[in-house]
Structures are given as structure tokens and as C-alpha cells.
Amino acid sequence: xxxxxxxxxxxxxxxxxxxxxxxxxxxxxxxxxxxxxxxxxxxxxxxxxxxxxxxxxxxxxxxxxxxxxxxxxxxxxxxxxxxxxxxxxxxxxxxxxxxxxxxxxxxxxxxxxxxxxxxxxxxxxxxxxxxxxxxxxxxxxxxxxxxxxxxxxxxxxxxxxxxxxxxxxxxxxxxxxxxxxxxxxxxxxxxxxxxxxxxxxxxxxxxxxxxxxxxxxxxxxxxxxxxxxxxxxxxxxxxxxxxxxxxxxxxxxxxxxxxxxxxxxxxxxxxxxxxxxxxxxxxxxxxxxxxxxxxxxxxxxxxxxxxxxxxxxxxxxxxxxxxxxxxxxxxxxxxxxxxxxxxxxxxxxxxxxxxx
Length: 356
Hints:
By secondary structure, the protein is of the alpha+beta class. The chain folds into 2 domains: 3-211, Orthogonal Bundle (Endonuclease III, domain 1); 229-354, Nucleoside Triphosphate Pyrophosphohydrolase (Alpha-Beta Complex). It is built from 14 helices and 7 strands. The strands form 2 sheets. The chain has a 4-stranded mixed beta sheet, with helices on both faces. It has a 3-stranded antiparallel beta sheet with strand order 3-2-7, with no helix packed on it. The protein is elongated and about 75 Å long. It comes from Gracilimonas halophila. Belongs to the Nth/MutY family.
């Protein structure tokens, strides 16, 4: 199959099979940019309601740039990978200040914005500005390694570069945005990780993996390293007035700019109550007594997993000070809803709000 045939077959398929999405066929580069940032590490169905809400709150780059970071993080709450939201907010300020509120059209300029890497730069410039920049994501890697019969480890930079070279050669210069979206759509809907629907694939006639019956072993991805697991103890201190203490995570730390109940990792052979008491002394400079467990929960992050134990604590002595956080604040249970929390802590806040 020639490159032109690959493109024409793919685009014809896309015309009839593309899924409706609120950002698809959208002429506003700002909205395309927002959608691409949200779709990093996030499924379409999960991102869709967040996109609609985010655009209603920040309809243009000017509203986003002028918003308080806490507002942006609250709108992002539950979507995960919060550095995306912080970077998006910072990039919006840069677009307003340095580009008069217009998203840069060139790859070399747009990639200078915080949070925009090679994939996002290619996606936004091709879809919003019709620039022939080929995208390579997990879906594209799967389609092209199968199509060209590439059996090398897709974790390696060499393999990804090889896929990028093929994508660059195949991209349709007249409809680069549609081509990129079609290739990703094909990987998502037809050329799936397991049991691909080869019979309904528009490029099957040229696919090496399909001809050789190797779709079950291509693409090859070497086993991932085992994720470490941590046991975490957090403390819920309640004042005599019924307010709870929350802490603002450091800006440059993981989950920076989000609020949490203070705590930390359990040491080896340390009872969890002692973990909570020690961590609160280290983080806040106070003596507490952990007296009752509210709940425990499991949560998985990209590189590790946790089991979190949340304990009610009595403040014995000292005034809480933000030794390891940006700020500490006393809030009512009802006010917890106003603050952006990581997902694990959010489950705690929801339970606390419901508790009598």
C-alpha cells in the first residue's frame, strides 16, 4: 500500500466512523489545546464532562490566565495528574502576556509553553492550524508497529523514533489534523491492544502483523518495573469549635497546590497510630493523640500505590505551623467542598461531610 493509499483509506474510514466529541471539529485553538492537555493520560469518556465544565468556567484563555490557581485546580479535581492543570494555568498567562492571547501556530513556538511536549505540540498545531506535524501516542505506536511489523521494544527511544519517522512520512499534508485524529481513533476503536477488529480495518491489506497473524505479539512492550507500595497515615485534627485542619501541599511537590490532611509514610514495624502522631509532630510541630480510625483506602498513582489510614486526632499541645507545607488552615466540614483535594483525600472529605 502506497503512502497516499494509506492516507486516503484511513481518512475515508474516519469520515464515517469518528466519534462525536465536544472538541472535535472545533475551530477555536484554545479549546483544542485544553482538550489535548486533558486527554494526556485520560480516556475520552472521562475527560468529556471535565472539558465541558472547564470551558464553562474559563471560556477563553483570558479567563483562565486571570483565574486563581485554586479555582483551576478545583475544576481539575478528580482528573488526576495535577501538574497538567498547574502547567496549563502558567501557559495561559504566557499566551496572554507574550502572544496577545493567541495560541502560537508554529511547532517551535507552541512547544515553549509549559506543559506542551512533542505530542501535544504536534496535535494542537495539526488540528488547530493545519500544520503537517505527525503525532505519536500509544494508539499510533500500536497501529504503526503492527502495520510495518516492528517487533522491537516500544519502551525504547529508538523504537519510538522509528515510529515517528513512519508517521512523518505517512501524514496527509492537506488534512494533517484529520489524519492524526484518524490514526489515533483507529488505534482506540479498531486496532485495540487485544482482539483487534482486523476485518473492519481500512488499512488491513498493507498490515504486516495482520498478514503474519502477529497482532497478539505486536507491539512488544518489555515488562514494567514493579510499583512500590507505601502505607500512609494521616491525621484529622478537630478543634473545639468543630473545625478541621488541612494543609496546602508545596507548589513544586507532587500534587502541588492541592490541600490534604497532614501525614506521611509508615516506618518499618511502626504502628499506624504512631506514624500519624510522629508525622504530625514533624509536619506541624504539635503533639497529638491518634484515637480512632475514620477509614482506610487504597489508591494507585502512576509510579506507586498507597494504602492510606486516616485517624481522628486530639491536639495535646502546640500550635500547628506549616513546616512542610505552604499553609495550614482550619475549616468547617461543609467548607471542605470548596478546596481542591487529591482523589484519596477527596474520599476522606466526602465521608467527613456526611458524618454527623
